[in-house]
């Protein structure tokens, strides 16, 4: 499958032929060589990860086995073959039972020495867009912070007076009026609780240290199984060789607990009697994300996944999931996932979500502990 490909020419020292297979294998973008029948003739390592198949598995397949025949990628391939020119298309969706990719940039190039063959490069731009959206969400969270500070100063004090007056009224009015006084007190408590929840968005520095993320996950799993999710099955798929994560234990517990609780509520609310939540970890070599509009690159090799087999998240909600006050729960405040996104962002991490009926997965990309991390402020 991974045959040796050689370019016509020499390396700079003009003594050795350049092994194109080695060069393509080192590229971060997926590179695929298709023959005239769209069979896979060559794939690099990035393409194996992109399609979720090994090179030997892909050698037995055609592109049509992975992508529906009405996908725009086949129109691009036909145009490349017909015009014998390089063509690129952006923001494509490659969705099927085996594959689910969105926001893909595809470039097709003909190979004149191999008639009908097409060299495809595929770049997944969804991660960069996710990071861009999360920067926007963090700005929204800061707006919540400012509003919470105003509310804490301008609302809490008069709210305490209203609650105190309601308590005095309870003791001096008739039983019928006492019910109204009780209602005033309860509503004052509800408003105060909402202000308290908003105050947690404050911009406070976090104390971080090296943590075993598996201990955090196991702690949350035990809380869930002995509390709000006793009838849901939990599965673990951990990479035992993971290095320590550079983070704050209490805040990471809050993040994972929020995601697991949401998953459990989604499963329970759908009436699924075979609910399952999967906790998984992994290490992604070379996972570096460039922050849009800057030269800063984030090194985020540690991956934590929380996956459930609930009903999924509606498409119209998914794009705004981490924004404050966005919720699908009748009694929800819409601050839970916004706080999760803020905490992950404060850790220098990235969050992604993929969802369809029967499978929702939240992925956290987190930094690892470096030797000089303990000395950082």
In short:
With 377 residues, the chain is α+β, with helices and mostly antiparallel strands.
Task: Please describe what this structure looks like.
The protein is of the alpha+beta class. It is built from 11 helices and 14 strands. The chain folds into 3 domains: 105 residues, PAS domain (Beta-Lactamase); 71 residues, Helix Hairpins (Orthogonal Bundle), CATH 1.10.287; 167 residues, Heat Shock Protein 90 (2-Layer Sandwich). The strands form 4 sheets. Strands 2-1-5-4-3 form a 5-stranded antiparallel β-sheet. A 5-stranded mixed β-sheet has the order 7-9-12-14-13. It has a two-stranded antiparallel ribbon with strand order 6-8.
**In what order do the strands lie side by side in the largest sheet?**
2-1-5-4-3
For the sheet with most strands, the description reads: 5 strands, antiparallel
First-last Cα distance: 50 Å
The class by helix and strand makeup works out as: alpha+beta
* E-strand count: 14
Which descriptors would you attach to this protein?
Heat Shock Protein 90; 377 residues; Beta-Lactamase; alpha+beta; Helix Hairpins; disordered N terminus; five-stranded mixed sheet; elongated
Indicate the topology.
Elements: H1 20-26, E1 30-34, E2 40-43, H2 45-51, H3 55-58, H4 72-83, E3 87-95, E4 100-110, E5 118-124, H5 126-154, H6 156-172, H7 175-199, E6 209-211, H8 213-226, E7 233-237, E8 245-247, H9 249-269, E9 276-283, E10 288-290, E11 297-299, E12 302-308, H10 315-318, H11 336-346, E13 350-356, E14 359-366
Parallel strand pairs: 7-9
Antiparallel strand pairs: 1-2, 1-5, 3-4, 4-5, 6-8, 9-12, 10-11, 12-14, 13-14
């Amino acid at each position: 499958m991974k045959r040796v490909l050689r370019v016509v020419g020499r390396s700079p020292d003009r003594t050795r032929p350049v092994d194109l297979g080695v060069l393509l294998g080192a590229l971060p973008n997926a590179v695929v060589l298709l023959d005239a029948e769209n069979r896979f003739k060559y794939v690099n390592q990035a393409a194996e990860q992109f399609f979720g198949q090994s090179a030997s598995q892909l050698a037995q397949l055609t592109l049509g086995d992975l992508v529906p025949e009405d996908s725009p990628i086949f129109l691009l391939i036909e145009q490349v073959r017909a015009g014998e020119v390089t063509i690129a298309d952006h923001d494509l969706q490659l969705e099927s039972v085996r594959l689910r990719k969105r926001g893909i940039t595809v470039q097709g190039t003909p190979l004149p020495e191999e008639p009908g063959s097409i060299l495809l490069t595929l770049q997944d731009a969804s991660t960069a867009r996710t990071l861009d959206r999360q920067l926007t969400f963090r700005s929204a969270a800061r707006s919540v912070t400012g509003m919470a500070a105003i509310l804490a100063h301008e609302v809490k004090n008069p709210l305490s007076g209203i609650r105190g007056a309601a308590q005095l009224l309870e003791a001096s009015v008739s039983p019928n009026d006492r019910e109204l006084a009780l209602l005033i007190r309860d509503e004052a408590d509800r408003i105060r609780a909402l202000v308290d929840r908003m105050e947690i968005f404050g911009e406070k520095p976090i104390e971080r240290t090296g943590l075993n993320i598996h201990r955090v996950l196991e702690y949350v799993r035990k809380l869930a199984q002995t509390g709000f999710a006793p009838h849901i099955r939990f599965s673990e798929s951990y990479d035992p060789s993971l290095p320590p994560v550079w983070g704050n234990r209490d805040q990471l517990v809050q993040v994972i607990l929020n995601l697991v609780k949401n998953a459990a509520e989604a499963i329970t609310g759908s009436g699924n009697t075979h609910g399952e939540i999967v906790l998984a970890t992994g290490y992604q070599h070379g996972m570096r994300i460039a922050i849009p509009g800057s030269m800063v690159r984030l090194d985020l090799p540690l991956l934590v996944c929380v996956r459930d087999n609930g009903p999924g998240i509606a498409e119209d909600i998914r794009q705004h999931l981490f924004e404050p006050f966005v919720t699908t729960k009748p009694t929800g405040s819409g601050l839970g996932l916004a706080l999760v996104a803020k905490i992950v962002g404060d850790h220098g991490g990235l969050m992604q979500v993929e969802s369809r009926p029967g499978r929702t997965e939240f992925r956290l990309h987190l930094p690892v502990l470096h030797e000089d991390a303990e000395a950082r402020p």
